Amino acid sequence: MRIVSGKLKGRRINPPKNLPVRPTTDMAKEALFNILNHHFNFSELTILDLFAGTGNISYEFASRGTESIVSVDGDYGCVNFIKKTAKEFDLNILPFKSDVFKFIEKHKSSYDIVFADPPYDFTQEQFEKIVTDVLSLNLISEEGMLIVEHSKFTKLEHLEHFSFEKSYGGSVFTFFEFATEDDDDEYDDEDDLEDETYDTEED
Q1: Residues annotated as region Disordered (predicted)?
Q2: How many domains are contained in the chain?
Q3: Quick check: is 191 in a domain?
């Protein structure tokens, strides 16, 4: 796993092999950030990374200059690895150990981008709950964006505030916005490779 752009471009991240994760592939990650690069100034963003796993997506935002990143995962090993890596690279990432659904219910802040990468074997209902909870509880700002990564077998385009989706290998990114554009051409990218207890603890 490597950081694909920004000040840490090319740096490899080597998480422990026993973490219960499925990191976003470098190909999909690079294509995702090519889309976001056309829409956001990374240095001004606030980010909430749900089901953060190894911190893969959080590191990409931090490498591009984002200084307000909250990473949430329910696994102690993942949270500790994110803390260790953020300290090593001097990145402003705040990790939380929490059940993600409980975190969403209790959290009061809003963000420019909420990225959620649940286990692909979540049920359709669990995926839909992530979307409806994040949007109904206003975890994204009026001009913000929710991005959910999932497999091609999960369908989310029927949900309210759906904007568009992109596929890369076996991964699909579905985008939700309160204020959608009339024309999604601005999101097209020539590099897209289609088909391919609120028990929060800050140890």
Answers
A1: 1-21, 180-203
A2: 1
A3: no
> pLDDT for 21-47, tens place per residue?
887 888 899 999 999 998 899 999 999
Q: Phi first, then psi: what are they for 12, rounded to 5°?
A: -95, 140
CA distance 152 to 138: 27
- Which domain CATH number covers 142? 3.40.50.150
Q: Which domain holds residue 159?
A: 26-180
Q: Model pTM greater than 0.90? A: no
Structure tokens at 40: 């956001």
Give the whole-angstrom CA distance, residue 60 versus residue 51.
15
- Residue 108 CB coordination number (10 Å): 7
Residue 95 lies in a domain: yes
Q: Is residue 185 part of a domain?
A: no
d(CA 132, CA 129): 5
- Candidates 175, 168, 173; CA nearest to 194 is 168
User: What distance in Å separates the CA atoms of residue 66 and residue 93, rounded to the nearest whole number?
Assistant: 9
For residue 201 the two structure tokens come to 């603890």
Q: Is residue 173 part of a domain?
A: yes
Give the integer Cα–Cα distance in Å for 199 and 56.
Answer: 23
3-class DSSP state of 69: strand
Q: What is the amino acid identity at position 109?
A: S
